[in-house]
Amino acid sequence: MDGIIAYALAPELNDMLQGSFVERIAMEDRHRLTLTLFSSDRRKHYLTLSANPTTPYLALSQQSPPRGMNPPPAFAMYLRKHLRRAKLLKVTSPDWERVFVFQLIALDELGDERELQLIFECMPRTANIVLINRDAVIMAAIRHVDHRVNRVREILPAHPYVPPPPQNRKTVPEILQMTTESFFSDLDQNTPSGWAVTRSIGGFSPLLGDEVAKRAGIDAAIPLGALDRDAQGAFFREAQALCQSIVANDFRPAIYYDAPEGEARRRPIAVHAVPLTQFHHARYFDTLYEALFIYNTATATLEHFLRGQQALQKKLSDRIKHARKKRKLHEDDLAEGEEAELDRLKGELILAYIHAIPAGAEQIALDNYYAPGEKVICALDPTRTAAENANRYFAKSKRKKRKWEAAQSLLADDLDRLAWLESLLTTLRFADTQEDLDAVRQELESDDRQANVKVDSPGSQGMPGRPASKKRRQQQSFMQNKKAGAKKDAGRDDKPLSPRKFRSSEGYTLASGRNNLQNDQLLRKAARADLWFHVKDQPGSHVLVASQGQEIPEQTILEAAGIAAWYSGAGRTGVAVEVDYCAVRDVKKIPASRPGNVSYKNYKTLYVKPLDPKVLESF
What is the pLDDT of residues 223-261, one digit of tens each? Predict the structure, then answer.
């Protein structure tokens, strides 16, 4: 938000909220305050003020917000005491400043009227919500600022309220009275042209500075000193034209996107009251507050999605790193175990040539009777007899053989787990919706619950005939509590997520699993004559086409293969990949394997490009 948006928004808020009463006050988090206002036309409005230092915003809507914090913060309790049933007289904003002043009249404990002002300072880093009385003395603030943070402007109860310092820039009306020469004479000629507008006109953001440069046909990064006289004239004319439209309240609120409508990954990138020609994809609104509400909601949803995606990606990356470390250890054990036969041979040769081995020898080369002419070098312990050295080699051989046998099984588990984790990471990387994230999270939680309900190891139990030590009792109690918690979680019913469903151009239903659990579920519920699709030799979603008792036409097969390629490791690259497909009757779940692991036969392979699902009807 910049000063121009505040200038355009304040009259809208005043027209909508003037005369309404404060019915409810809540805080969804420590930065966000929501006032429920009951207007004279018997409608409820929800005014949200977010003083988040990173992304402060104001939103007005008729949609009920989430429930507030319980117990409510002290600031919310204080406002409830002083603003409950208060009447909103007026909403104003100092010209070109990102500050909103809500003038209210409330009743005190004695029933006398008192004038109050709720001030919202909507500036990043210093955003705040302050309640002051008629004498401009601070009563409460959502963020207290003392002299350690700001020596000039303290925001503390019982202190006088000092407005934010002025910007010391030319106002919009003043720009209309200037000439090209006077405008450029006050500016540093080394400043980029777009940034020069931002620094010189009050209320202008970098977005509007770039807009002036775009309308003048100038690169916003070019320094002012590099502009010739014609370019300077065009630049100043566009700046004046934009200021003239602002003074005339010639606003056209819009949200601007990075892609046209219908794109799966379409994201909002800007919102403003002034038409912005630098963007190509816009959605226009009748009111600015409606555009701001939709933009802030979409931005908050996107930020929540990205935070969840990053958190899951970090969790998966850590688990993949751990799985690879285990695989390396077991591969080393397997390589070491392959030496078991050599140790056994050395033990046999030492016994065979026991009388030829001198006492105290540290090494000896013995003939290998399994391979005539070959010598086997045996390291010996000089403090031991030849027989003891032979037994030491036999013991090492048995130990390495046991390690080799265990490593074979464990390495297979490692490879299976690693493939499963990488398939989840692929699913996460191409997630488009919150449901996709929830599907990955549910599968991870299901795996965690299965890991937590394993039987305790014997080492955690007390020794028979001996009283358990304090440490052992504490460990046993911890494991029992953990096991009980795991059982409780395992019995909890998570809200089931539905798979992705599309309708092919020929009317057939296509279903795609969001995670491996859904892939198994789709396979179990499918008819034997339905078709199953999966990208070849890569992680990806299972796609099934319901045959409806008919032969599935070629176009639907191609579309299903394209969907399977889209939700796979090939992803959105557009590169053609191989996709296998066959009848469901030929797909078998591998016994005792992880979700999503299947074997199939009698299949055919198509070479197709990923198909964006937006070209199909989803339901």
Answer: 988 999 999 999 999 999 999 999 999 999 999 999 888
**CA–CA distances in Å: residue 586 to residues 502, 591, 596:** 23, 15, 15
Q: pLDDT for 554-607, tens place per residue? A: 999 999 999 999 998 776 777 899 999 999 999 999 888 888 899 999 999 999
Distance CA 204, CA 196 (A): 10
H/E segment holding residue 331: helix 288-337
Residue 114 CA to residue 135 CA, distance in Å, equals: 11
C-alpha torsion sign, points 244, 245, 246, 250: positive
Give yes or no for a contact between 447 and 319, defined as CB atoms under 8 angstroms apart: no
Task: Give the CATH architecture of domain 3-141.
Answer: Roll (2.30)
Q: What is the pTM of this model?
A: 0.74
Q: In what order do the strands lie in the sheet with 21-27?
A: 57-61, 44-50, 32-38, 21-27, 87-92, 99-107, 113-121, 128-133, 138-141
CATH number given to 172-250: 1.10.8
Place of tokens 């010391």: 168
Between these two residues, 81 and 430, which has the higher pLDDT value? Answer: 81
Cα–Cα distance for residue pair 83/364, rounded to 1 Å: 96
Domain ranges, ordered by start, for the chain: 3-141, 172-250, 335-432, 500-618
